[in-house]
Amino acid sequence: MGKCLDFKSCGFDNRDEARFCSRCGIPVKGTLLQGRYEIQSLIGKDRGTVTFQATDLQTRHTVTVRALIPKDTNTQEQNDFLQDAELAVSLSTHVSDPGSIRVIDYGQDGPVVYMVKTAPDSTPQPSSLSRFVNRLSSDLFPQTPSNSGIEDEDTTRIRIAVPGNTPQPTPAPWPTPGPAVRDWLVEGNLAYEHGSYEQALAAYEMATRQNGASVEAWSGKGATLLHLGRAEEALQAYDQAISLSPNDPEHWTSRASVLHDLQRYDEEMYCYDQALTFDPDYVYAWSGRGMALAEQGYAEDALVAFDRALLLDPQQGTVWQAMGDTLYSLHRYDEALIAIDRAFALDDSQASLWDTKGNILRRLKQPEQALVLHEQATQIEPNSATSWFDKANDLRDMRRFGEALNDYDRALALDPTLAGAWYNRGNVLAALRMFEDALNSYDHALQYDDGLISAWYNKGSLLHELQRHQEALAAFDRALALDVHYIAAWNNKGLSLFALGRLDEALAALDQATSFAPEEPDAWYNKAVVLEKLGRKQEALTCRDWARSLDQQAKQAQGL
């Protein structure tokens, strides 16, 4: 955490443990909103609002979070924002057309009110689209399509092909002595191919001085600067290449990659549009556009771009995997499985593919098949905490609790800050009725993520089971502070207050539960018990009758 993400207007240096900027109030990097959405970066700012790129820890997919700036807005504006967000969520449930944007969540955490765009999921999954930050494959400018699927980190950046008609130096230990007039472009290309980026940069700079109109030299310089982490300078080099050859879609696509690293997403999309204006069938512009849209949470738009890219080149394994991840985020699991299988057919060496396919099968209620895939993922990449975590989830679903505990421990040995693993470990221990150990595991989860609502609720429920009602109340209150509409927390808070003899407070808690969820019979039954204890027998009878009616309706709906 630390420095405020609004570098231009604020830039305040906060304490390391701060979740929100002490000056302007917006979330700092790494903050978990409602224990689910991890803030990654600031996308934009406009008239009292900020937009962030974030990760949904339940799905491990990228989402967009729009929030009001606390210091610039008042309570009424915040209430209006939440009302609008609630309406947007309601309307989004009816939207399924391609090209649509969905608001899928909203709420308040600390000083911030926010809404979330993209499709939610219910269980933490491995990061799916973040691995495509370097979205284009190593052969961004290939003569023939690549047959490899997903390349490693060094090869996912833009590369410049060595011109086929350019004389090569005499084979010898590189670099070789040049002729009287050295061909700096050739030397730059060779150095780039060898991964000697500092030498490549020096050669490309000499080439641009030798011939300032050399498009290849400027493009090579841009690619090399990007490798060296000097994105602003890379952008200037690509701008020069585009000024010399404005109709080349390759240069526009390369420029888009630089802008992605700089988090200038609107400009990035403009570059893809320009590339496709000059060549509507330029596959790398379509694939890059799809990756960018998916990372920003525009899943339906991304699928359209992926479809076009794969129609042009069905051998793009990276795009098949991205399409699978995007379909997964939309809960379209059968289609996601087809896409992942296409990626497998091109390259089955990536642990992430085995892991993702396993997660799809688990969501399709096939944990036995998922387990086989996750075991393979752990063999390919034994130091991946995520793969061990997902394997443990399979074992948990199969009720093989002892083995699940072992794999949660393996995941936590690799990454002790993995709050989801501590939380699910606690759930397994609770299922084994090892309540004290489960409480300890929940406490660890909350140590690393104190916004994990379900951990507070489960902790409160276990404390209630252990008749530690005062502690249970504190846990339920923490859950409700994070989500005031958490019905089960209101219900169980009422039970704890009843156990403490605080009947009026218990009734007030159960009133909240029945007002938020009038169709749930349990709260009505509990409310009847409290009313009877208070001597309000007629009201108690009415609540009990209503609860029985709801039970009967539920049975009829299930055909029982």
Automatic annotation (TrEMBL):
Gene3D superfamilies according to UniProt: Phosphorylase Kinase, domain 1, Tetratricopeptide repeat domain
The alphabetical list of record keywords is: Repeat, TPR repeat
Which domain of life, per UniProt?
Answer: Bacteria
Q: Give the InterPro entries listed for this entry.
A: Kinase-like_dom_sf, TPR-like_helical_dom_sf, TPR_rpt, Ycf3/AcsC/BcsC/TPR_MFPF
Spans of the TPR repeats?
215-248, 249-282, 283-316, 317-350, 351-384, 385-418, 419-452, 453-486, 487-520
Q: Name one Pfam family in it.
A: TPR_11
The protein's name: Uncharacterized protein
Which organism's genome codes for this protein? Dictyobacter kobayashii
